[in-house]
Amino acid sequence: MGLNRFSSLAGTLMIYAMVLSESWWSCHGCLDEERSALLRIQSSFNYPIFLQSWGEVADCCSWEGVGCNFTTGRVVYLDLSGIREEGLGDLYLNVSLFRPFQELQSLHLSGNFIVGCVENEGFERLSGLDSLVELYLDENKFDNNILSSLGGLSSLISLSLSGNQLKGAISVDELNNLTSLQWLEFGGNEIESFKSIHGTGYDLLRLRNLEYLGLNPNHFNDSTLSSLKGLSSFKYLNIAYNQLKGSFNVTELDALINLESLDLAGNEIDKFVLSKDTRGFGNVSFISLSNSTSNGRALPFTLLQSLTKFPNLRTLYLDENNLEGSFGTTLDKGNLWY
Ligand SMILES: *[C@@H]1O[C@H](CO)[C@@H](O)[C@H](O)[C@H]1NC(C)=O
Ligand SMILES: *[C@@H]1O[C@H](CO)[C@@H](O)[C@H](O)[C@H]1NC(C)=O
Ligand SMILES: *[C@@H]1O[C@H](CO)[C@@H](O)[C@H](O)[C@H]1NC(C)=O
Ligand SMILES: *[C@@H]1O[C@H](CO)[C@@H](O)[C@H](O)[C@H]1NC(C)=O
Ligand SMILES: *[C@@H]1O[C@H](CO)[C@@H](O)[C@H](O)[C@H]1NC(C)=O
Ligand SMILES: *[C@@H]1O[C@H](CO)[C@@H](O)[C@H](O)[C@H]1NC(C)=O
Ligand SMILES: *[C@@H]1O[C@H](CO)[C@@H](O)[C@H](O)[C@H]1NC(C)=O
């Protein structure tokens, strides 16, 4: 009898499951509109092998790389990183293909041999997607033109464009529109400076919530670095492997009182310049000066000496610098690690 009750319960459950999968699941598990948008993306990406499972089952929420909100049944996460092989050739992206995903939060398009966008179908087409907080475009072939299409993505919190073909002076006017941005990655390009139609004066980059900027490696030098001076929310700066040489003028970056971590590896800095009124960098607890002697120079003693001016410095990386002998007593602060 127990068994009977059990099997009738199992039968009822099975019927529920079928009802769910046939109606609720296929209606609400994945919207028709979003399923066909995914299939259009699959074809515009020239059917990469990775996506060949797409379409085998109706519920697109279970397709590889797709994530849904199970309350609304809408696509919120789309990871299409590294799905196109080089043999498929360069791709001009039609960004309008992503417009149906009205609740999209996170879009990953890294490593797909994308050279740019189809004319009038750039990222400006996503400006209505108010949930979009993450956009990863790393390791493609985007050039400076991409920047002018990003200004409407005002909900973005993280933007990554590392390993692309950004070069020379890049324009920040549209970027400055991204007022929620906290995390910005530009490493692996050949950027020399930021520029604005409003001139090169004070406060070039005005991202009031920015906490992290990655510029490792690029071609910034000491004079172009000053465009960071308005970023008072800043906590982490990675400017390793750029072209910083000689004195690093901290006073110039005096507004950066919240900076905690500074990666300066692979540059040729001789010393940090601060006056006794300098407040900038007062909260810096981590500095990397790794690999600063690859041009054959010795690590300047003035550099090590000037580090004693950072009251909260706890961790210092000095690896890959051919260090020999002893430093003497100037650095006996007890809290520095070599
Ligand atoms: C899913 O959508 C519902 C309704 O819009 C929302 O309340 C909920 O926070 C969303 N869940 C996630 C994980 O985003
Ligand atoms: C881009 O995609 C949209 C949406 O699928 C489509 O309407 C439009 O014709 C496409 N544009 C081009 C140039 O292919
Ligand atoms: C920049 O932001 C302003 C205010 O939110 C908006 O009116 C403008 O259209 C944005 N620019 C672009 C290119 O989207
Ligand atoms: C720094 O780079 C800018 C832009 O490339 C250049 O105009 C300037 O001469 C450079 N300054 C130094 C000190 O090298
Ligand atoms: C450092 O920058 C400050 C503020 O811009 C300036 O007054 C000072 O002369 C600079 N010092 C050096 C050594 O360049
Ligand atoms: C460290 O940051 C706090 C705010 O987060 C600020 O009030 C304080 O002045 C900073 N410390 C120094 C030494 O600048
Ligand atoms: C040190 O820097 C040189 C020149 O920039 C680079 O070729 C080398 O790979 C770096 N070494 C390490 C361990 O990163």
From TrEMBL:
- Which stretch is the leader sequence? 1-29
- The residue ranges of the Leucine-rich repeat-containing N-terminal plant-type domain are 32-69
List the Pfam families hit by this protein, alphabetically: LRRNT_2
Membrane topology, as annotated, equals: Single-pass type I membrane protein
Q: What is its main location?
A: membrane
Cellular component GO terms, alphabetically? membrane
Q: Does the keyword Glycoprotein apply?
A: yes
Q: Which domain of life does the UniProt lineage start with?
A: Eukaryota
Under SMART domains, the record lists: LRR_SD22
> Which subcellular locations apply to this protein?
Membrane
Q: Does this UniProt record's set of keywords contain Transmembrane?
A: yes
Instruction: Could you list this entry's UniProt keywords, alphabetically sorted.
Output: Glycoprotein, Leucine-rich repeat, Membrane, Receptor, Repeat, Signal, Transmembrane, Transmembrane helix
Q: Spell out the InterPro entries in the cross-references.
A: LRR_dom_sf, LRR_N_plant-typ, RLP23-like
**Name the record gives this protein:** Leucine-rich repeat-containing N-terminal plant-type domain-containing protein
